[in-house]
């Protein structure tokens, strides 16, 4: 995990659990989330997801148990957000979209469920402002209907 004093604009960082290096673009005053450039992608990640020492060998970097340990190519093409609070679900969705873009996925299926509709509304609002989402449609009758969103990815 990176320390606040290490995370400065232009610092090289390692995204824990994703096997990707990036450069810090912006550092907000509260350090809650940091904007990082990874190749052509700009990601917003929590400080806890970063390591600054790129000189350490990959095997000695700490692994995050909450993130998948498999290669990006093995990521599932869907994410299930049911039962999560809106804030937690949106953070997980942003991470899943970041990883899907890095893995070169063309589409992702997002399961948010029906429930009260609060999570569905928040997820779809995120789609509208995400620069990764080209378009989204509700799932078909055989895919879970309005409890699922099928997202087509592409950078704008």
Outline the structure in words:
- The protein has 156 residues and is α+β, with helices and mostly antiparallel strands.
- The chain folds into 2 domains: 53 residues, SH3 type barrels (Roll), CATH 2.30.30.140; 82 residues, Ribosomal Protein S8, Chain: A, domain 1.
- The chain has a 5-stranded antiparallel β-sheet with strand order 4-3-2-1-5.
- A hairpin with a 6-residue loop joins β2 and β3.
- α1 packs across α2.
- The longest helix is centred in the middle third of the chain and has 18 residues.
- It is elongated, with a radius of gyration of 16 Å.
Indicate the proportion of strand residues: 25-35%
The gross shape turns out to be: elongated
**Straight-line distance between termini:** 31 Å
Instruction: Give the name of the CATH architecture of the largest domain.
Output: 2-Layer Sandwich
Structural class by helix and strand composition:
alpha+beta
Radius of gyration: 16 Å
Helix coverage percent: 10-25%
What is the tally of helical segments?
A: 2
Top CATH class of the largest domain? Alpha Beta
Taken together, the total number of domains comes to: 2
What topology emerges from the helices and strands here?
Layout (H helix, E strand, L loop, with lengths): L11 E4 L4 E7 L6 E6 L2 E6 L3 E2 L26 E3 L5 H18 L3 E5 L6 H12 L3 E6 L9 E6 L3
Parallel strand pairs: 6-7
Antiparallel strand pairs: 1-2, 1-5, 2-3, 3-4, 7-9, 8-9
């Amino acid at each position: 995990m990176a320390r606040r004093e290490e995370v400065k604009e232009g610092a090289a960082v390692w995204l824990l659990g994703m096997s990707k290096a990036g450069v810090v673009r912006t550092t907000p005053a509260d350090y809650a989330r940091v904007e990082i450039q990874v190749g052509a992608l700009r990601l917003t990640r929590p400080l806890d997801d970063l390591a600054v020492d790129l000189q350490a060998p990959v095997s000695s970097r700490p692994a995050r148990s909450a993130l998948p340990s498999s290669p990006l190519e093995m990521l599932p093409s869907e994410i299930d957000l049911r039962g999560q609070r809106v804030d937690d679900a949106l953070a997980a969705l942003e991470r899943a979209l970041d990883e899907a873009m890095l893995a070169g996925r063309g589409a992702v299926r997002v399961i948010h469920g029906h429930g009260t509709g609060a999570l569905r509304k928040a997820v779809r609002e995120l789609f509208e402002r995400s620069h990764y989402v080209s378009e989204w449609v509700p799932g078909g009758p055989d895919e879970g209907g309005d409890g699922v969103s099928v997202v087509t990815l592409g950078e704008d």
